[in-house]
Amino acid sequence: MSGMYGHTPIGLAKDCQEMAKAAGKQGEAFQKGAMVLMGVMVMASAISALLELKRELSKREHHGHGR
């Protein structure tokens, strides 16, 4: 079911969407699950980018004080 995406939030979201299509009217729960997982993926990506930015700024600040 997870295919090439594996057990990542984006892979699980894709699986949820596929199950929702197959489930027809009862697929609303799968669609909601997919939306939640996509939101988690967006938040994780944003947090990761912010942490990387913080690390870079910290490195620059640390190197700047040595001069």
Number of helical regions: 2
Low-confidence stretches: none
**Structural class computed from helices and strand pairing:** mainly alpha
As an assembly, this protein is: single chain
Q: Name the beta content range.
A: under 5%
- The end-to-end distance, rounded to whole angstroms, is 56 Å
What shape does the CA trace take? rod-shaped
Helicity, in percent? Answer: over 70%
As a whole number of angstroms, the C-alpha radius of gyration is 19 Å
DSSP E strands, number: 0
Chain-averaged pLDDT: 79
Largest beta-sheet details: none
Order of helices and strands: HH
Could you describe the 3D structure shown?
With 67 residues, the chain is an all-alpha fold. The chain has helices at residues 9-23, 28-65. The longest helix is centred in the C-terminal third of the chain and has 38 residues, at 28-65. The termini are far apart.
What's this, in brief?
The protein contains two helices and no strands.
List the helices and strands and how they pair.
Elements: H1 9-23, H2 28-65
Helix pairs in contact: 1-2
